[in-house]
């Protein structure tokens, strides 16, 4: 399989990764003698400096705290037991399975799919502005309506059968507030226990925004819920300390567990050690009032900070979708690592315990119940991008274990008891030796790392010089020289200062925010994943200043494309970081052989791969970013996820060939495709209205992936039957 893809790639392929560039005074230990480094030439603002204008986008007052014993009793939600025709949550249901019981569209008739309608959100990059759009949006469907959000957090309700707009809420979000990317992955549907049926905001749509507001509108008419927060909005920058627009933003839908909205947020990577906090917070879904905070370095204080304090800075943040369990009263939080991704010497013991982990928080208190770590002392940006999927595991002894699937960027998939965080006996995790201690002074690596040995790995063997590749013998030679110049000892190669190091899997490897889909009837998991190594190097603070690696919150900063897809200032540490794809800089073709993207079906009960294939064609890809127009499947980088159906199909966009694909779940064969108006970097979903099944995907494109920009939600269906 790899040889065939390699041959196609020799003829056709270039990479499709986009452009690479991904206390309160500056101090750090620079070497074993514990000398203090000089401050950067750029000023390091104190955390208690007043927030910059525009950070509290709507000038909202502070929100009050609600004692947990005053939290209203929640009523059952649509996502707890969805109707077959609905898709009421980001992952369809509370378990985030991305599995639909609909059967109308089958392998036999999928070739007849046609566009039913296209809806335009109206959001495109403003003239004169860098493109940072990547909508990544999955609509939800309840009753006869789809609810969606634009790349800049407008919310809309449209007719699910025709695409006719029923209402449009304008968030009035500044384009300059967008952090790394303009993702609004979905909205949350909530049924109130205090507003009676027929009253305003009985059913409401809730979203977190890129400019850090929590907003609730009436699902019926799109008007703000006046009793929620301050006129329908809550300021999420309260208690965060110094920040500027773009530094912090909410990109994923907030789950609601037993009436508690749990909110996480992205903190812009690579900026400074004392970046804004990665705090996780709970709010009352009825009133919008604050309930609790989980602040890693203040573990015993679950209250909001007063005017003279702020949440602890630089702690691991969680930017992807979380999953909740109403019965256990837990929310499962996938975390990243602490600020300054590629240097860990200044992290606290508490941070090291919860970074790049799945953390189960009690939704009434914010207290961690358990932690399972997927990478120890992460300096590779292996934050968990996937949403956890919940399922009931039927063991051989007849017992039923409430379980959790946690995919990772490493291609390791961990299966845990969601009550305790311990690996299931059938899916053991072992600690294997890892390269250590490393070469960075005072920053040793851990001697072992966790490996899930009960689930087939989503990845390829370690790279060798013989694997180096190019469009010509000279290109291959250049990549071999590049390989020899780098430090590489396999997975978990430690960061280096005097030479580059190869990071494989790369930070966009394995499974990312598209997550997996899982069929609870068959135990089959479907995962699309990446094979894109990175070429990194630490540089001195002096060199970082010379290269103008400037954090986002200083006046000298100038926005550029791909800010977190490349070089990192890592201010307030001894080192900046140069981060880019492992490619030929001239042709922009990866140095490792294709495929660069794969899709794999795994039978979890049998612990085996059912089928595995390269995913994504060369039609829109090639050297120098030029499309070849050839429809040969060579495997392209991909972002976005799949949906599986009881009809025997999977639907997925994700790849950089700008197509939506229908795949036969039995064989992995692609049965149907359609070219989208923009890149399909979003999770696909399906639903039905009046017995007719539809498939929908946001084709908004993605600036990091280099795919075409669009504002189109594209919806497909079989031709209507003549009466």
UniProtKB/TrEMBL annotation:
User: InterPro entries from the entry?
Assistant: PQQ_b-propeller_rpt, PQQ_mDH, PQQ_rpt_dom, Quinoprotein_ADH-like_sf
Start and end residues of each Pyrrolo-quinoline quinone repeat domain: 87-695
Keyword terms of this UniProt record: Oxidoreductase
Basic and acidic residues bias spans: 83-94
**What superkingdom does the record give?**
Bacteria
Cofactor(s) this protein requires: pyrroloquinoline quinone
Alphabetized Pfam families for the sequence = PQQ (PF01011)
The entry's family comment says:
Belongs to the bacterial PQQ dehydrogenase family.
Kindly give the SMART domains that the UniProt entry links to this protein: PQQ
Native organism is Bombella pluederhausensis
Any signal peptide, and if so, which residues?
Answer: none
Q: Where is this region: Disordered?
A: 41-60, 75-94, 425-448
CDD domains per record: PQQ_mGDH
- Tell me what this protein is called: Pyrroloquinoline quinone-dependent dehydrogenase
């Amino acid at each position: 399989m790899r040889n065939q893809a390699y041959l196609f790639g020799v003829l056709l392929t270039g990479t499709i990764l986009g452009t690479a560039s991904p206390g309160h005074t500056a101090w750090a230990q620079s070497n074993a003698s514990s000398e203090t480094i000089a401050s950067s030439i750029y000023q390091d603002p104190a955390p208690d400096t007043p927030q910059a204008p525009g950070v509290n986008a709507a000038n909202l007052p502070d929100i009050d705290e609600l004692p947990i014993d005053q939290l209203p009793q929640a009523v059952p939600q649509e996502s707890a037991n969805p109707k077959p025709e609905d898709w009421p949550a980001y992952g369809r249901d509370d378990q985030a399975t991305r599995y639909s019981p609909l059967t109308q569209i089958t392998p036999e008739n999928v070739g007849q799919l046609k566009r039913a309608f296209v809806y335009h959100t109206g959001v495109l990059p403003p003239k004169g502005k860098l493109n940072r759009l990547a909508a990544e949006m999955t609509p939800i469907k309840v009753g006869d309506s789809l609810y969606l959000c634009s790349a800049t957090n407008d919310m809309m309700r449209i007719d699910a059968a025709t695409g006719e707009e029923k209402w449009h809420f304008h968030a009035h979000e500044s384009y300059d507030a967008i952090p790394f990317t303009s993702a609004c992955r979905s909205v949350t549907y909530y049924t109130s226990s205090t507003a009676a049926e027929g009253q305003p905001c009985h059913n409401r749509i809730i979203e977190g925004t890129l400019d850090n507001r929590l907003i609730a509108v009436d699902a019926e008419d799109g008007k703000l819920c006046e009793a929620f927060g301050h006129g329908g909005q809550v300021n999420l920058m309260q208690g965060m300390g110094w920040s500027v627009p773009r530094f912090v933003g909410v990109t994923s839908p907030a789950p609601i567990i037993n009436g508690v909205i749990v909110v996480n947020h992205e903190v812009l990577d690579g900026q400074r050690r004392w970046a804004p906090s990665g705090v996780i917070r709970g709010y009352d879904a009825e009133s919008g009032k604050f309930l609790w905070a989980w602040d890693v370095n203040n573990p015993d204080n679950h209250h909001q900070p007063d005017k003279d304090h702020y949440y602890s800075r630089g702690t691991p943040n969680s930017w992807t979708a979380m999953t909740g369990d109403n019965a256990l009263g837990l929310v499962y939080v996938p975390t990243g690592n602490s600020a300054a991704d590629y240097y860990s010497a200044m992290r606290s013991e508490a941070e090291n315990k919860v970074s790049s982990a799945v953390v189960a928080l009690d939704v009434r208190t914010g207290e961690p119940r358990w932690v399972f770590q997927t990478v120890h002392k992460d300096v590779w940006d292996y934050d968990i991008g996937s949403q956890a999927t919940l399922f009931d595991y039927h063991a051989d002894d007849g017992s039923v274990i409430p379980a959790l699937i946690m995919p990772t960027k490493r291609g390791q998939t961990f299966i845990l008891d969601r009550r305790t965080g311990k690996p299931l006996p059938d899916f053991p995790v072992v600690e294997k030796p890892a390269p250590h201690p490393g070469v960075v002074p005072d920053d040793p690596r851990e001697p072992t790392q966790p490996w899930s040995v009960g689930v087939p790995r989503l990845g390829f063997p370690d790279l060798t010089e013989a694997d180096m590749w190019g469009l010509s013998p000279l290109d291959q030679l250049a990549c071999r020289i590049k390989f020899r110049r780098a430090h590489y000892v396999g997975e978990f190669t430690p960061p280096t200062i005097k030479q580059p190091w190869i990071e494989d899997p790369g930070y966009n490897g394995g499974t990312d925010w598209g997550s997996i889909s899982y069929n609870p009837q068959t135990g089959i998991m479907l995962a699309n994943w990446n094979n894109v190594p990175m070429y990194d190097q630490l540089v001195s603070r002096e060199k970082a200043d010379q290269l103008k690696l400037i954090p986002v919150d200083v006046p000298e900063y100038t926005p550029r494309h791909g800010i977190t897809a490349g070089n990192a200032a890592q201010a307030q540490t001894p080192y900046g970081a140069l981060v880019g794809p492992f490619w030929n800089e001239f042709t922009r073709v990866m140095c490792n052989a294709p495929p660069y993207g794969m899709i794999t079906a795994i039978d979890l009960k049998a612990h085996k791969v059912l089928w595995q294939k390269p995913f994504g064609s060369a039609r829109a890809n090639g050297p120098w970013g030029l499309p070849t127009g050839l429809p040969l499947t060579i495997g392209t980088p991909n972002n976005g996820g799949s949906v599986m159906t009881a009809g025997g199909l999977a639907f997925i966009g994700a790849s950089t060939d700008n197509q939506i694909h229908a795949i036969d779940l039995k064989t992995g064969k692609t049965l149907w495709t359609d070219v989208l108006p923009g890149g399909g970097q979003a999770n696909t979903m399906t639903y039905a209205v009046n017995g007719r099944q539809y498939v929908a995907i946001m084709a908004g494109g993605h600036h990091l992936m280099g795919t075409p920009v669009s504002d189109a939600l594209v919806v497909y269906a079989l031709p209507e039957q003549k009466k």
